[in-house]
Amino acid sequence: MGLPLGRAPDEALLSGLATGDPEIAVAFVRRFQRTVFGVAIAVVGDAQLAEDIAQQTFERAWRHAQVYDSRRGSVRTWLTAIAHHLAIDAVRARRANPVAPEDLDALLDIVTQTPEQHAVAAETSAGVRAAVATLPREQARALVMAGIYGLTAQQIADMEHVPLGTAKTRIRTAMHKLRRTLGAEESLR
Amino acid sequence: MSEMTCEQLRELDAELALGILPARERARAVAHLDQCPGCREHIEQLALVGDDLLGLLPGTEPPVGFESRVTALLQPPAPDPAPAPAPAPAARRWLLRPRLLRPRVAAAAAALAVACGFGGWAAGTAIQASAPPPSPTARANAQLLQAALVTGGREVGRVFAHPGARGWVYMSVDLEKPMPEISCVLDHKDGTMTRLGTFSLQDGYGYWVATTDVNATTLAGARLLTPEGSVLASAHFA
Ligand SMILES: [Zn+2]
């Protein structure tokens, strides 16, 4: 009748983390380290820096577990957001040229892969993935540059050699298309 | 700095939601959001799309040794004093503070009444301090005890207890009605009980955790009580 820690609900592990119990910390880190490190390495592209960011992410989660708000999303989404913020800050502080074109292309392929290519893709992420895949290429590029690499519209305009207004429109059009697609799915549930 | 209109804000909505607006524009936009619930809701919706996008990033195995390095960091700074025979009741504390009440992310969530609102948390006082002594063997066994919280034959929540002298109890419950004051007690097999604390449920749903001594071999169950002492829900560990 015992439940291994590895199968405790995410919120229970996060709550237990605050007790300082080393077993909880191991279970928590083990459950989320691939996600957290995956976000960090995708954004910064450097294993050592990504490890620092992933480490800081867990420290922040541990210190601020009490501000986690389940209405804003899952524990995994929360950790992802923390890791992303830290990664963007690190990149902004270090690099003049925030993304290599070949990295962008590789990441675009990854986020638009069809669900069949992702054995463990969750249902919701399959919907998002499909929605991103149907965007015109230039909108998908702008979306990934803005939403994942954290580039400003001006940086995107410079990289794509288009006017600032065009870059802004691409980001906005892509975001609104995704929102409509996902909103429609939501109402079907 | 001039005021931003709703129309101007909506032109920048995606950039604002993704956090990529330059500082100056961002400050003006945030000033507008402070006084415009409609735009705030709109931006929150778009921010969820940004979260979904990040959810597409693939997981990646971190370098060897990462898990142990990070785990070592997540420990309280001060080492424990010599083990006490039983934790002082005053040392028990509620770990989750009341959450910031934000505007509802989605109307759907409100309709389902799954949004959890907390208020009026208070540290409980022990009504029975004779908790059983910690069992060292329970500690080595990294298992969670779990049981359903039941009322009138219906499951209304779950309780998880992590054994140990510095163990913890986690509970989630949905009573479907606001409860200004609920107290929680642990029942032990020898007939004693430990009062964990009191809390309130604003929307009827919530979860919380408390640190307490948990002995796997003597823990019998948990109960949620009204201030008058009637049982709202109970759980029995098998
Ligand atoms: Zn407005």
TrEMBL record, chain A:
UniProt xrefs under Pfam families: Sigma70_r2, Sigma70_r4_2
UniProt keyword annotation of Nucleotidyltransferase present: no
SUPFAM superfamilies in alphabetical order: Sigma2 domain of RNA polymerase sigma factors, Sigma3 and sigma4 domains of RNA polymerase sigma factors
Residue intervals of the RNA polymerase sigma factor 70 region 4 type domain: 128-178
Keyword Cell cycle: no
Keywords: Sigma factor, Transcription, Transcription regulation
Family of this protein: Belongs to the sigma-70 factor family. ECF subfamily.
Protein name (database record): Sigma-70 family RNA polymerase sigma factor
Organism: Streptomyces flavotricini
UniProtKB/TrEMBL annotation, chain B:
InterPro entries found in the cross-reference section: Anti_sigma_zinc_sf
Protein's name in the database: Zf-HC2 domain-containing protein
Residue stretches spanning the membrane: 105-124
Entry keywords, A to Z: Membrane, Transcription, Transcription regulation, Transmembrane, Transmembrane helix
Organism: Streptomyces flavotricini
Gene3D superfamilies assigned: Anti-sigma factor, zinc-finger domain (1.10.10.1320)
